[in-house]
Amino acid sequence: MQIATPNAPPVLSPATLPHLIDALVEQGWYLGEGVLDAGVCAALHAELCDRAKRDALAAAGIGRGNEHALRRDIRGDAIHWLDRESQAQRRYLAAMGELQHALNQALFLGLFEYEAHFAHYPPGAFYRKHLDSFRGRANRVISTVGYLNPDWPEDGGGEMLIFAADDPEREVARVRPAAGNFACFLSETVPHEVLPTRLPRASIAGWFRRNASLGGLVDPAR
């Protein structure tokens, strides 16, 4: 359930859910502009900026396990995994829990859990075109990106490009990283990339996962 505070609106409006689910079924991706609560976005933005100033973020890599590597020519952001240490984080994660329940109920996806991290892109940083699933461990089913940047200018750069699943060269959507915008897409089939940003760029990247356990052991997050 979403964590409520007195007179506080939901982080992600329940009215958004039917449109999001329909879009995932029809085209494999969803983009909602201004659908995240402004107050929660502002609190999360302040938290991430404070971490960036204190150098309390980790350079992001590509791959995982033995294949994990830092490749600044491919990916230039720094991250911090959400750990529920703030009220804003708890509210955001609770909203994603509501979304997970709605997706499972409507689409029978068997989503097992949700993992997410802050992503901070310094000026000039980017992320080359990629998929969010991992070779041999494709347990990330649906990806989400929530944007936190207030007053993002038209020439700020940092847009996320979404490409057609059946034609990775055809752009189908361009997402401005303005606060309140929210994107959701199929992790295994929808290519996407982040264009170079002119300004510090803040977001939360997350994934709904299906349990890919082996030998009775639960596959861990990340």
TrEMBL record:
InterPro entries: HIF_prolyl_hydroxylases (IPR051559), Oxoglu/Fe-dep_dioxygenase_dom (IPR005123), Pro_4_hyd_alph (IPR006620), Pro_4_hyd_alph_FE2OG_OXY (IPR044862). It comes from the Bacteria. The keyword Nucleus does not apply. GO terms for molecular function: ferrous iron binding; L-ascorbic acid binding; peptidyl-proline dioxygenase activity. Keywords: Dioxygenase, Iron, Metal-binding, Oxidoreductase, Vitamin C. The keyword rRNA-binding does not apply. It holds the Pfam family 2OG-FeII_Oxy_3. Its cofactor is L-ascorbate. This is 2OG-Fe(II) oxygenase.
